[in-house]
Specification:
By secondary structure, the protein is mainly alpha-helical. The chain contains 11 helices and 2 strands; from the N terminus they run H-H-H-H-H-H-H-H-H-H-E-E-H. It has helices at residues 2-10, 17-31, 38-52, 58-61, 64-67, 72-81, 94-131, 139-148, 153-160, 164-176, 199-205, and strands at 180-183, 190-193. Strands 1-2 form a two-stranded antiparallel sheet.
């Protein structure tokens, strides 16, 4: 069966790459050739097939991040259990395909939301920096804090192409202005929001996002 699977993987196929990748996953996990690790290897094979089509970004080539969301791993194993303990290549796989297409779709939703949210937070902080008379380059440090909760001097320095002294001075000025608050000492130091950090940016960055089930009404 593995030889047949390998031949199928190497053969030309008109199926959509996402469908083919999902089926490769199902074929390998159903054959179950190893005592352990079949799920991991099958998901890796799925990622490989998508990557072979030129989609290398993990957000779009892998469903691992989506499986890590609450409830999705349980649903994954439930969907596999519906396939039974034996390999049945003639079974109805519509539920499996729907499950995987939902994963791909919601991964794309998540990436799109992050991009839109990040851009909106940046625009808000740019307006704040302009009104407050801040140098435009410090927006990246404020943005990291709003979106990621913290910023390190090394990241800010590299992001803006600054010298060590310039980055240290900028962050020190932001602390003095009450926009950032230092945590830790020396190399371990990072910065979080200070008492004057614009609350609207934090609220926007931390607004919950609800994924849409693309096949809910099908």
């Amino acid at each position: 069966m593995l030889a047949e699977l390998i031949a199928w993987l190497n053969a030309a196929d008109d199926a959509h790459p996402l469908i083919r990748a999902a089926m490769a996953h199902l074929h390998l996990v159903s054959i179950h050739p190893w005592a352990d690790g079949n799920g991991r290897m099958s998901r890796s094979l799925q990622t490989l097939l998508i990557a072979r089509e030129g989609v290398l970004a993990p957000e779009f080539s892998s469903i691992e991040a989506w499986l890590g969301r609450p409830g999705n791993t349980w649903e994954y194993y439930r969907e596999l259990q519906r396939r039974g303990a034996t390999y049945r290549p003639d079974q109805d796989v519509s539920g499996w395909i729907r499950f995987n297409l939902t994963a791909y779709h919601q991964q794309a939703q998540t990436v799109q939301h992050r991009m839109d949210q990040s851009a909106a937070v940046w625009e808000l902080l740019a307006g704040f920096a302009s009104d407050d008379g801040l140098d435009e380059r410090v927006i990246s440090a404020l943005h990291d804090v709003a979106v990621g909760g913290r910023v390190r001097r090394t990241r800010y320095e590299q992001a803006e192409g600054l010298t060590l002294q310039q980055a240290q001075r900028d962050l020190r000025d932001l602390v003095t202005a009450g926009l950032l608050a230092p945590v830790g000492r020396t190399r371990a130091r990072y910065y979080t929001e200070g008492p004057r950090f614009p609350g609207s940016a934090l609220e926007l960055a931390r607004t919950p996002f609800t994924l849409i089930a693309p096949y809910l009404n099908d």
